[in-house]
Design a protein that fits this description.
Blueprint (H helix, E strand, L loop, with lengths): L2 H16 L6 E2 L3 E7 L10 E9 L5 E7 L6 E8 L3 E2 L9 E5 L2 E6 L2 E8 L9 E12 L3 E12 L10 H10 L2 E2 L3 E4 L4 E5 L10 E6 L12 E5 L2 E5 L12 E8 L5 E10 L1 H5 L7 H21 L6 H13 L5 H31 L13 H18 L19 H18 L5 H12 L2 H24 L1 H4 L8 H8 L1 H19 L1 H29 L4 H21 L21 E2 L2 H9 L4 E6 L4 H11 L2 H9 L3 E6 L5 H9 L7 E5 L7 E3 L5 H8 L2
Parallel strand pairs: 12-19, 13-19, 20-22, 21-22
Antiparallel strand pairs: 1-2, 2-3, 3-9, 4-8, 5-6, 5-10, 7-8, 10-11, 13-14, 14-17, 15-18, 16-17, 18-19, 21-23, 23-24
Helix pairs in contact: 4-9, 4-10, 6-8, 6-10, 7-13, 7-14, 9-10, 13-14, 14-15, 18-20
Length: 695
């Protein structure tokens, strides 16, 4: 054959091979391309495309269910030009099990192809341009999210296998096939398969990988039992075990020769579960749910002692003292209204958080205090409460009215709104037990999440309900007297101090201009309170009705002007100054900076905080800023990183979510060479920090 013909043929073969693979995106961790199994396309004929990842040694990516950690890759391919169409879902090959300490993940290593099918349409008289967008996570000692956009052009013609076709054949061979065996799942997690071929001679090992994250405890042992025609695996149910009517996943069977086959299994409820007529909670799931509810209730109880909510609760205690001689039903009526306000407010906050999560947003506990308008509104509300306690105006048929012969509708509403107020000011003071409960609630089914929020409200309202409902306890309350008026007025000052704290929070959030707006609002709220007091005084003294109506109208106008200023308040994008207020050498939190320090072998202490978080500020003053801890940081060359969550910050929200937390405070120490870190309690002491630093 002439040399020119040989060179032309070689060039044609090389061009043909290149036409089925896009330009590569290369990093230190992998090489990513878009590939196709044919070198030409024909409208209506199936075309297989895929994301090819050539992972460097030690790195891995993830399956559709990443397991205990990780994130599944995504791939979207659009065809344009001579044909149109979009790719379907990824046809996932069976993954490897990747164990890392107590965690079990499912993923891929080496040369990986994640294929999808596309059926081009159109006339097929021009080249087809494939444009793909992909996102994937690669992990080793650290995890790095990656993304890429790829373009691949295929000419029209009779399809022929490309140079990448063997990759698709290998991926297809690794794809699970439909199981020939009948499968059931029992309430205790026992997976049972029956059918011909299930013998000890044919099955040496077996393991199950669910399609749904959290369906089972992936790290738990799966005890295997094989008898003639029957195979059972003892799975440990997880939180999502009963989230679907069937347990779907991949069953891997390995024979004595080491050959492995992957079966796609959809296990239906076994006889014991089916006869019950509904899904029966597995024991571990029930215990886990009960633990979350107990932690939530305990967290609500502890909130009664927190500085945020303590002034409001003192108001309730004083009202209960006034009712010491009233009938038990009168006391319970007010207490029930207060409890309804507390529980209802918790349910609303929980519902908003779940709605934001369902919409794809990242929201944490205390999210409402990241709004400058909300902070200002709460400050004005507490200022009005303080003026009421000082006698500037009255609340009408409020708590005091319960001491009469009956209970009015206004009294119930006053008690309920007091409960709502207690919840609004309590959320920045997240109790130690509440953090775990909230984090668990946000990953649980919606009904369980709402049950957790109800349990928190029950915990906060419980002490007042007990005092109101147990006459023996009520008899130990002090007798009403003149001292109650003095105490009522004295309670105004801790509430005014809370207003000062909220002013500081707003100053950090939105700057000096916001403080001017807040101050103007305080003047308007004070004017409205004074006008309301005048109207009440004239009404009680049979004053002119026209003047009473005028004072009330002016009071409402003042409040309306204050409310009209709220939309103009916006939290700033820059840091709030909490980082600068930390000890010398404090750095602002950054995932990139954290990864760089870990790569250098530097120890890092991460402090996630917010200006509106009382527990955070107390921990910093008592523990983190103490002389022994600061000396230990210097001696061990620990980098102190502070994440400021006063304003909304998606980076910090994602970091908290990745660690299973929903709010601040959050502390984690990364010793040299330890990328997992050690999480510290939410309530710190110097001793706890020093003990962690010894690692």
């Amino acid at each position: 054959m002439p040399l020119v013909a040989v060179l032309s043929l070689a060039q044609a073969v090389a061009t043909q091979a290149l036409a089925a693979e896009s330009a590569a995106q290369t990093s230190e961790r992998d090489v990513a391309t878009l590939v196709a199994d044919t070198d030409h396309y024909r409208p209506g004929a199936a075309l297989h495309v895929g994301l090819r990842l050539r992972l460097k040694p030690g790195w891995h990516t993830y399956w559709i269910n990443p397991g205990d950690a990780g994130e599944a890759p995504t791939l979207s391919v659009q065809a344009s030009g001579g044909a149109g169409g979009a790719s379907g879902a990824i046809a996932w090959p069976a993954p490897e099990r990747l164990r890392d300490g107590p965690l079990m993940s499912y993923g891929y290593t080496g040369d990986v192809l994640l294929p999808a099918e596309l059926r081009p349409s159109g006339a097929g008289d021009a080249p087809m341009v494939l444009k793909a967008t992909a996102e994937w996570l690669v992990c080793a000692a650290v995890c790095v999210p990656e993304q890429g956009q790829f373009t691949l052009t295929l000419p029209p013609g009779e399809p022929a296998p490309s140079a990448e076709a063997p990759l698709f054949a290998r991926a297809a061979a690794a794809r699970p096939v439909a199981s020939p065996f009948a499968a059931t799942i029992a309430p205790d997690g026992t997976l049972r398969l029956t059918g011909e071929g299930l013998t000890r001679a044919a099955v040496r090992e077996a393991w199950f990988m669910p399609l749904t994250t959290g369906a089972i405890d992936q790290d738990a042992d799966q005890a295997l039992t094989v008898a003639d025609g029957t195979l059972t695996l003892a799975l440990k149910p997880g939180d999502a075990f009963h989230a679907a009517p069937t347990l779907d996943g991949v069953l891997m069977l390995r024979d004595p020769a080491g050959e492995t086959r992957a079966l796609s299994v959809s296990a239906r409820p076994g006889p014991a579960m089916a006869s019950a007529g509904a899904a029966v909670p597995a024991p571990d799931r029930a215990v886990g749910g009960a633990r979350m509810l107990l932690l939530a209730f305990a967290g609500g109880l502890i909130l009664n002692l927190m500085p945020c909510v303590f002034p409001v609760l003192m108001m309730k205690a004083m009202a209960l003292t006034r009712l010491a001689g009233a009938h038990v039903m009168a006391r319970l009526a007010g207490a029930g209204a207060y409890a309804a306000g507390v529980v209802g407010a918790f349910m609303v906050l929980g519902g908003v958080m779940l709605a934001l999560r369902a919409a794809g947003a990242v929201a944490g506990w205390g999210f409402q205090f990241q709004s400058a308008a909300f902070v200002a509104a709460v400050c004005w509300l507490l200022f009005a409460v303080a003026l009421n306690l000082l006698g500037v105006f009255g609340m009408g048929n409020g708590i005091a009215a319960l001491g009469g012969a009956g209970v009015t509708r206004g009294g119930y509403m006053g008690d309920a709104m007091t409960g709502v107020l207690a919840v609004l000011v309590a959320t920045p003071c997240t109790a130690p037990f509440m953090g775990a409960a909230i984090a668990g609630a946000l990953t649980a089914p919606a009904w369980m999440a709402m049950a957790v929020f109800v349990a928190m409200g029950a915990g906060l309202a419980a002490p007042y309900l007990v005092l109101a409902g147990v006459p023996a306890l009520a008899r130990h309350l002090p007798r009403p007297g003149a001292w109650m008026d003095i105490l009522r007025q004295a309670l105004a000052f801790p509430i005014l101090a809370t207003c000062v704290w909220l002013m500081w929070v707003l100053a950090l959030q939105a700057g000096a201009t916001a403080i001017a707006v807040l101050g103007a609002g305080l003047v308007l709220v004070g004017l409205a309170a004074w006008l309301t007091g005048l109207a009440q005084g004239m009404a009680m003294g049979d004053g002119p009705a026209r003047r009473v109506r005028l004072c009330r109208a002016l009071a409402l106008t003042a409040l309306a002007l204050a409310v009209a200023m709220l939309p103009g308040l916006r939290a700033g994008r820059a840091g709030t100054g909490l980082v600068a207020s930390g000890p010398a050498g404090t750095e602002a939190f950054s995932p990139a900076r954290l990864a760089a320090l870990q790569a250098q072998g530097r120890p890092v202490f991460v402090d996630m905080t917010a200006a509106w978080c009382i527990s955070c500020l107390v921990n910093e003053r008592v523990a983190l800023s103490s002389a022994p801890v600061q000396a230990a940081f210097r001696d061990r060359h620990v980098v102190y990183m502070k994440g400021d969550w006063t304003n909304r910050d998606t980076t910090i929200s994602a970091f908290l979510e990745a660690h299973g937390r929903a709010g601040v405070p959050f502390y984690v120490y990364y010793p040299p060479g330890n990328t997992q870190g050690r999480v510290l309690p939410q309530i710190l002491t110097s001793g706890l920090v020093l003990e962690a630093l010894k690692e």
